[in-house]
Amino acid sequence: MHRVTLRNHYLLIKQNLLSIVLYLVIITIALLAQFKGSELFIIFMTLGFSPVTILHYTYYMQAKDMQIEFTTDGMKVFQGETLQIIKDEDIVRIDLYMSVSMYETGYASGRLLSEEYYYAIIVTNSGEIIINNLLYPDLLNIDRYLNLSKFKYHTKLFAFLP
């Protein structure tokens, strides 16, 4: 059973944790010392971290009441009190949205903090289900459980949820 846990939060932001701490330290020093031009610096630093903050928040809000469990012939999706059983033959396609470096190498290059965020839209006969890597950290290897021929990969600079 996969669900959002503190461990999943940590796995997703562990690469960015040092950058976030450094950002907070630099902003604090700039504010306390009142460096000339620090306002512009603070604005640019804040703009640099905004996409990651928004991504993490939206990923959490989308997945917080959701649980998934893979079975031999598909998957079970629990959303709150609702259970949806998806069999392999019910899946029309699976769209994976990720950064270019994730697509090409399977890991984030480290150039942008947002590269580690990716999600899948599973299109079934009865609708769509969105699974992000905060809910299921091993999402790039979801083909172990589901039919590989139904995958379609998409690259984005920021993998914002639809």
Automatic annotation (TrEMBL):
Domain PH span(s) in chain numbering: 8-137
Keywords attached to this entry: Membrane, Transmembrane, Transmembrane helix
Membrane-spanning parts: 12-35, 41-60
Pfam family, one: PH_40
Name assigned to this protein: PH domain-containing protein
Protein's organism: Pedobacter ginsengiterrae
Lineage summary: Bacteria, Pseudomonadati, Bacteroidota, Sphingobacteriia, Sphingobacteriales
